[in-house]
């Protein structure tokens, strides 16, 4: 596995950065060499940063005419051999969906930072939301899998962007950083390491590019100009890329492998953090900024004598239902606070078995306060 | 306003503290009621938004009216006495900072930096040389001296209050 | 097709996917000859296409890197391919509906940015693959599956469109004048700028049979009559009203 340790190309040490700047620095640290984008609140600072940094670092930056073009250029650049990304928010994400399906189907590594705002539609463009949880997974047509990570701090805007690149390159899938306006615009101290581990894509000359013997395998990933005479197509294809638009076996095998290559690796991909879970009777399941409110609330509730804990999901997709099922064994209830109307709540319910799940939803364009979570916990006493 | 928050946060990190800052964003940040929040700690900050502020700087009557009553018991309310009519008798940290920036520095923008000096002076939380270095890094070079002078003016006033 | 061009094709490909009489095979042959005359390094050339009949000219036929993209997005994909590796020659080949309707915005903005890309638009004035629907290039009054009373709209003048968007090299050729076409294609491919070639290419299956041009031969005859060049115009003899001006349109 070609995970290599490199000197962090961005300034190490204690820094005071905004989340969006930290995501841009994470991309640079991961080896990103192409950014294609279109301005959209509240993600634009990432694009502005990359417009300054890409060319001096030997990469390329294109301001495209819309988000459809942005993600299309990113897919094209990825096949030219560059680690490539874009950043956007809800409306832009919606426009990108067809091409995200293309990336999944052609197994193109791409990273999308989605700085979520209060949707649907134009909604409250400068306000926070977390309503894109399902959109990043189910937004394009057909069956496919992606990776989506949820940062709760500026530190993780950096580190999870690096991880999104690593997973995207390794699994050959679109990887999302499911950021939120509250974290994108938060400024915090970050402690950036001197070295970081990055994954450079696997390429073995002459190997099939779009298939392998294993039903959950990840094929070799060459690039244009390497003499491979690549046939990249969004139509159903065989392991070499020849279009196979007739014949049920080709489509079935391909679609199943694209899912299995991610789902069969859940144990390696999925990450979480637990706080006070050992004796917790009520477990708050939270992610992103909301998990910070939840941690504050859980600590307060502990002081008030409640046996509560926090399960923070770092990986949202693939969803680790087995983790929820395990935690459910020892819990008498889950609380799922979210800045949407219960998108992860449904996933938790589907894995919680008989353990009751309480949903705390807020879609008013502001973050959920620790007090709101504490009050909801109080009702579960 | 945004600059003041970033300056204090950056200076705090530069002297080894943890800081988390948020500010108004979008149309607000471009003119109307703008707000910058800062949380400081010697340990990692779990919840980064301000819940119960120990210190408020109210640069307008609207800000004072909205936020002054939410300051923690024993906390300080600093206000621009040229623009704000304080309602609570214990709010005694008033200075005509906006007027001062116009009259002494012929520049409305440096009011921010005078306030940073005031906050640093009255709290004693910040090292002067770190603040100065951070400020010089954040503002355009041609305004460096002007901003340093404004910072010094604020520090002087703030220290007087701090001793009071 | 001359056997000498076979070296540019994948050995697995035995036939073209095109209907009898389709002009795209002629365009494919002209393009191969242009590339051959330029001694283009196929290992450093990427062919990008969208969705539609013309998108199948390079994909999978050409023995080079091919990127068969989404409907309309070929130019946007190509921009990323080129930006990330400027050593590659990037040639976009797609149809009129793909490049100028669903992909019209990408086309004009790529022309404005003037990135080095060659864009070849096979214009058959109709949506062929989907069954003969009206395109933005369908001449006014002509019959299609979605304009059975006759197209009520004017057609795009692609040369003016792309030139207006800033492309330094713009040409219009036709498969009925293949040698001129090879010349335009060569100049476009060799250009260090954004270069656009519109190629008029008949679609007997969807277009001809709806517009009283019952055989491929009739379509080629009609196209031959309509295609004019500035130099070939006899001032004493007016060209037909719907004449199509071929040539290079550069300042």
Description:
The complex is a heterotrimer of chains A (381), B (164) and C (251). Chain A has two domains: 3-199, Thiamin diphosphate (ThDP)-binding fold, Pyr/PP domains (Rossmann fold); 272-378, Rossmann fold. Chain A has 13 helices and 18 strands. Chain A is of the alpha/beta class and 381 residues long. In chain A, strands 3, 4, 5, 6, 7, 8, 9 and 16 form an eight-stranded mixed sheet that branches. Chain A has a five-stranded mixed sheet with strand order 13-15-14-17-18, with helices on both faces. Chain A has a two-stranded antiparallel sheet with strand order 1-11. In chain A, helix 1 (19-30) packs parallel to helix 6, helix 3 (67-79) packs parallel to helix 4 and helix 11 (321-329) crosses helix 12 (343-351). The model of chain B has no long low-confidence stretch (mean pLDDT 92). Chain C has 251 residues and is of the alpha/beta class. Chain C is built from seven helices and ten strands. In chain C, 29% of the residues lie in helices and 19% in strands. Chain C is globular and about 45 Å long. In chain C, helix 1 crosses helix 6 (178-190). The interface between A and C is large, with 43 and 33 residues.
Question: Strands, helices and their partners?
Answer:
The complex is a heterotrimer of chains A (381), B (164) and C (251).
Chain A: E1 3-7, E2 13-18, H1 19-30, E3 32-37, H2 44-53, E4 60-63, H3 67-79, E5 83-88, H4 90-106, E6 110-118, E7 124-128, H5 133-138, E8 147-149, H6 154-171, E9 174-180, H7 181-184, E10 187-192, E11 195-199, E12 231-233, H8 248-263, H9 266-269, E13 272-275, E14 282-286, H10 289-303, E15 308-313, E16 315-317, H11 321-329, E17 333-338, H12 343-351, E18 357-361, H13 370-378
Parallel strand pairs in A: 3-4, 3-5, 5-6, 6-9, 8-9, 14-15, 14-17, 17-18
Antiparallel strand pairs in A: 1-11, 2-10, 6-7, 8-16, 13-15
Helix pairs in contact in A: 1-2, 1-6, 3-4, 10-13, 11-12
Chain B: H1 2-14, E1 18-23, E2 36-41, E3 55-58, H2 61-67, E4 76-80, E5 93-95, H3 97-105, H4 111-123, H5 128-138, H6 144-163
Parallel strand pairs in B: 3-4, 4-5
Antiparallel strand pairs in B: 1-2
Chain C: H1 24-38, E1 45-49, E2 65-68, H2 74-84, E3 89-95, H3 96-102, H4 104-113, E4 117-123, E5 126-127, E6 133-134, H5 158-164, E7 169-174, H6 178-190, E8 194-200, H7 216-226, E9 227-229, E10 244-248
Parallel strand pairs in C: 1-2, 1-3, 3-4, 4-8, 7-8, 9-10
Antiparallel strand pairs in C: 5-6, 7-10
């Amino acid at each position: 596995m070609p995970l290599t340790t490199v000197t962090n190309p961005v300034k190490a040490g204690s820094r005071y950065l905004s989340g969006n700047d930290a995501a841009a620095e994470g991309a640079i640290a991961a080896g990103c060499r192409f950014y294609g984008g279109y301005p959209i609140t509240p993600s634009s600072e990432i694009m502005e940063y990359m417009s300054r940094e890409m060319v001096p670092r030997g990469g390329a930056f294109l301001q495209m005419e819309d988000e459809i073009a942005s993600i299309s250029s990113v897919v094209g650049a990825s096949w030219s051999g560059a680690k490539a990304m874009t950043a956007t928010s809800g409306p832009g994400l919606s426009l990108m969906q067809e091409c995200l399906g293309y990336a999944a189907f052609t197994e193109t590594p791409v990273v999308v930072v989605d700085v979520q705002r209060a949707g649907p539609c134009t909604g409250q463009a400068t306000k926070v939301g977390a309503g894109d949880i399902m959109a990043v997974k189910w937004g394009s047509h057909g069956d496919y899998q992606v990776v989506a990570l949820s940062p709760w701090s500026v530190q993780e805007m950096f580190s999870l962007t690096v991880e999104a690149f690593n997973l995207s390159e390794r699994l050959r899938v679109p990887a999302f950083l499911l950021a939120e306006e509250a974290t994108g615009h938060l400024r915090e101290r970050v402690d950036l390491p001197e070295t970081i581990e990055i994954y450079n894509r696997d390429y073995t000359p002459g190997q099939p590019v779009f298939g392998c013997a294993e039903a959950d395998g990840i094929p070799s990933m060459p690039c244009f100009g390497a003499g491979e005479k690549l046939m990249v197509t969004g139509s159903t294809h065989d392991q070499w890329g020849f279009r196979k638009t007739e014949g049920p076996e080709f489509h079935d095998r391909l679609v199943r492998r694209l899912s299995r290559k991610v789902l069969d690796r859940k144990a390696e991909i999925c990450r979480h953090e637990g706080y006070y879970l050992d004796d917790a009777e009520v477990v708050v399941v939270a992610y992103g900024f909301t998990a910070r409110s939840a941690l504050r609330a859980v600590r307060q509730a502990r002081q008030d004598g409640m046996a509560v804990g926090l399960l923070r999901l770092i990986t949202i997709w693939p969803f680790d239902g087995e983790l929820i099922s395990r935690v459910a064994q020892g819990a008498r209830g889950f609380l799922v606070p979210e800045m949407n109307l219960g998108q992860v709540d449904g996933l938790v319910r589907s894995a919680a078995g008989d353990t009751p799940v309480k949903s705390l939803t807020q879609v008013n364009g502001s973050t959920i306060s620790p007090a709101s979570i504490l009050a909801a916990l109080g009702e579960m006493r | 306003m945004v600059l003041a928050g970033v300056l204090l946060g950056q200076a705090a990190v530069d002297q080894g503290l943890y800081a988390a800052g948020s500010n108004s964003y979008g149309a607000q940040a471009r003119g109307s009621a703008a707000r910058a929040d800062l949380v400081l700690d010697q340990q990692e900050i779990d919840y980064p938004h301000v819940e119960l502020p120990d210190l408020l700087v109210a640069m307008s009557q609207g800000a004072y009216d909205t936020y002054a009553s939410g300051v923690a018991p024993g906390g300080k309310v600093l206000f621009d006495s040229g623009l704000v009519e304080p309602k609570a008798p214990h709010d005694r940290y008033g200075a005509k900072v906006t007027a001062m920036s116009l009259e002494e520095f012929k520049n409305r923008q440096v009011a921010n930096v005078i306030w940073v000096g005031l906050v640093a002076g009255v709290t004693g939380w910040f090292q002067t040389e770190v603040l100065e270095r951070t400020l010089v890094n954040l503002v355009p070079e041609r305004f460096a001296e002007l901003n340093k002078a404004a910072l010094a003016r604020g520090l002087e006033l703030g220290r007087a209050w701090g001793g009071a | 097709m001359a056997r000498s061009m076979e070296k540019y094709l994948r050995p697995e490909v035995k036939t073209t996917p095109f209907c009898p009489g389709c002009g795209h095979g002629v365009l494919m042959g002209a393009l191969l000859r242009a590339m051959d005359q330029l001694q283009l390094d196929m290992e450093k050339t990427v062919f990008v296409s969208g969705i539609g009949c013309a998108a199948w000219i390079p994909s999978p036929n050409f023995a080079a890197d091919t990127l068969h993209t989404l409907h309309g997005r070929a130019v946007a994909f190509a921009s990323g391919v080129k930006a990330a590796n400027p050593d590659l020659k990037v040639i976009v080949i797609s149809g009129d509906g793909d490049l100028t309707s669903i992909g019209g915005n990408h086309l004009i903005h790529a022309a404005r940015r003037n990135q080095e890309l060659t864009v070849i638009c096979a214009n058959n004035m109709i949506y062929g693959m989907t069954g003969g629907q009206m395109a933005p290039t369908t001449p006014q009054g002509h019959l299609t599956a979605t304009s059975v009373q006759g197209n009520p709209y004017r057609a795009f003048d692609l040369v003016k469109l792309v030139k207006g968007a800033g492309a330094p090299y713009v040409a219009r050729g036709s498969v009925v004048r293949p040698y001129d076409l090879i010349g335009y294609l060569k100049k476009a491919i060799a250009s260090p700028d954004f270069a656009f070639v519109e190629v008029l290419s008949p679609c007997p299956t969807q277009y001809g049979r709806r517009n009283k041009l019952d055989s491929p031969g009739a379509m080629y005859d009609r196209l031959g009559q309509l295609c004019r060049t500035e130099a070939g115009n006899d001032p004493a003899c007016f060209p037909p009203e719907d004449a199509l001006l071929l040539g290079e349109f550069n300042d």
